[in-house]
Q: What sequence folds into this?
């Protein structure tokens, strides 16, 4: 499969001496839905900033769809759409003007730009707000406006930096569905997010960056197989004082009716349920305490040498 | 590619012109009122007590400088506030992530500033008609001077905005550099009135050359050789334009 993104030996040292990227290598295949994760300050935004020409690199190379960002900046930029983490549009401009102007910056004639704006604003549920000033939009609408703006020139690669930060559950799920559809239509997507269930649900491949280095780069499924322990919360009925040790399970009592159990991924849970039943404790319901990717993410950050 | 760049240029220009047109009460009206006050106080009230200058009434003498002063101030203010505003709100990133080349960004903002300078200059000219008749000695010199002046100060405004880190930084140059140079640039007097030393010192003030070219275009008189004035103007456009382009290419103030 062709590479949408090929980053090699990317270094960034800021003027204050802070080394944000320490020679990262990264590839993203065409058509992929790719998660770039890492804790705050890990270097994600710097890497995205360099790809989108907002940050100057110290060393290394960036190729998009085989084109060198240094040699063909205009072409490379035309292949890329960026949804940044922070709102970066003119709050005092009408919504439709923001979209049409962005199209103009990509060389799209005004008449065609209005037609495309109508299409993306309708898709993202912003058509009714097109004449209003951007500052009048709600937080969720502003996020959708940035997605609409990034899509106006039909990019082959879309970078979404925290696209659902601060939006309610309903809009988050609608946004997921929308970007899934964009990806199905062939657009390569790179997603950064702090909601790891978002990355687990959407992305096929993942890279984890920490302290300016890629510490993991693998298919999501392969990575999740490495999670060897899961934590469940059990809601019970019965006297928990009668609970005895359960072999191969680490059980903690949270309150008079709730237990937290760490259990190996390959372990059969029937034994645990039988043991609880013998103690006169019924399990009414249970849930996963943390999602698998979150567990793995924390494990990786805790155990990788820095 | 060329067509795409022309569309990008058109987009920036339309955006810039719409920006200052939407807030015309803040951008067009105040200079018209301020300059009307200059005409009333300096031209009518004080000017009537002053003898003819180079054969013209004091009101006629100050009209070219006052029109040019409004062009200088407004072309500068338009670009410095617009570009710094785009930096401050981070929507300059809309341009930086796009394939729009830096020279198109520069030209687009400069055209925006130039248009505002010319619009305000035209309004002030119209206001001056309420106080005196407009003389046109050489239309070509007059139009070229106004146009090149607006371009120079639009570029200068962009350079100021690139370096600015706060709203204070965009008012320092206009307050402490531009205004004194303009007032001492022969708008209200001829340098022949000054002692020899200050006449020579005034020659270091670039605005003197612009004001005198404008005065030549309108009245046919000048303290400065016209060729020197146009050479200076051309030099400023080339030097400042190149400098601004280098700043944009390097991403000074806009890329980390």
A:
């Amino acid at each position: 499969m062709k590479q949408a993104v090929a980053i090699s030996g990317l270094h960034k040292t800021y003027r204050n001496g802070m080394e944000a990227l320490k020679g990262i290598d990264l590839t993203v295949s065409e058509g992929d839905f790719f998660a770039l994760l890492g804790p705050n300050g890990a270097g994600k935004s710097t890497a995205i900033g360099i790809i989108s020409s907002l940050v100057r690199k110290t060393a290394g190379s960036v190729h998009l769809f085989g084109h060198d960002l240094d040699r063909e900046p205009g072409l490379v930029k035309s292949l890329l759409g960026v949804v940044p983490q922070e709102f970066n549009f003119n709050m005092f401009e009408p919504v439709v003007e923001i979209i049409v102007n962005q199209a103009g910056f990509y060389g799209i004639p005004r008449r065609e730009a209005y037609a495309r704006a109508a299409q993306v604003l309708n898709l993202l549920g912003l058509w009714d707000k097109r004449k209003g000033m951007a500052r009048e939009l709600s937080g969720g609408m502003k996020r959708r406006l940035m997605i609409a703006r990034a899509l106006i020139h039909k990019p082959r690669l879309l970078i979404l930096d925290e696209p659902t930060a601060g939006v309610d559950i309903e809009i988050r799920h609608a946004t997921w569905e929308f970007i899934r559809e964009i990806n199905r239509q062939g657009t390569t997507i790179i997603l950064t997010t702090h909601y790891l269930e978002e990355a687990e649900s959407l992305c096929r491949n993942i890279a984890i960056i920490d302290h300016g280095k890629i510490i993991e780069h693998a298919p999501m499924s392969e990575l999740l197989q490495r999670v060897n322990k899961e934590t469940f919360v059990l809601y019970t009925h019965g006297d928990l004082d009668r609970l005895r040790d359960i072999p191969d399970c680490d059980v903690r009592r949270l309150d008079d009716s709730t237990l937290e159990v760490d259990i190996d991924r390959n372990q059969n849970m029937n034994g645990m349920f039988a043991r609880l039943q013998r103690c006169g404790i019924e399990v009414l319901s249970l849930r996963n305490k943390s999602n698998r990717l979150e567990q793995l993410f924390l494990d990786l950050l805790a155990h990788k040498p820095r | 590619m060329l067509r795409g760049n022309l569309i990008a240029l058109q987009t920036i220009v339309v955006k810039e012109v719409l920006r200052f047109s939407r807030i015309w009460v803040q951008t067009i009206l105040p200079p018209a009122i301020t300059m009307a006050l200059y005409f009333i106080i300096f031209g009518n009230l004080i000017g009537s007590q002053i003898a003819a200058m180079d054969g013209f009434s004091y009101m006629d003498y100050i009209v070219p400088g006052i029109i040019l002063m409004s062009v200088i101030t407004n072309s500068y203010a338009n670009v410095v506030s617009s570009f710094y505003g785009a930096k401050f709100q981070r929507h300059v990133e809309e341009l930086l992530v796009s394939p729009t080349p830096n020279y198109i960004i520069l030209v687009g903002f400069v055209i925006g500033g130039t248009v505002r300078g010319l619009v305000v200059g035209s309004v002030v000219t119209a206001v001056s008609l309420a106080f005196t008749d407009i003389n046109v000695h050489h239309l070509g010199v007059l139009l070229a001077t106004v146009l090149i002046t607006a371009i120079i100060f639009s570029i200068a405004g962009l350079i100021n905005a690139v370096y600015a880190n706060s709203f204070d930084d965009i008012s320092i140059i206009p307050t402490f550099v531009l205004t004194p140079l303009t007032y001492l640039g022969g708008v209200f007097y001829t340098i022949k009135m000054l002692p020899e030393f200050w006449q020579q010192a005034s020659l270091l003030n670039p605005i003197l050359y612009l004001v005198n070219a404008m005065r030549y275009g309108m009245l046919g008189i000048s303290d400065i050789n016209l060729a020197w004035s146009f050479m200076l103007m051309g030099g400023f456009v080339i030097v400042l334009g190149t400098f601004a382009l280098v700043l944009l290419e390097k991403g000074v103030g806009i890329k980390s």
Observations:
- The mean pLDDT of chain A is 87.
- The CA atoms of residues 1 and 84 of chain A lie 27 Å apart.
- The two ends of chain A are 33 Å apart (CA to CA).
- The first strand of chain A starts at residue 3 and ends at 13.
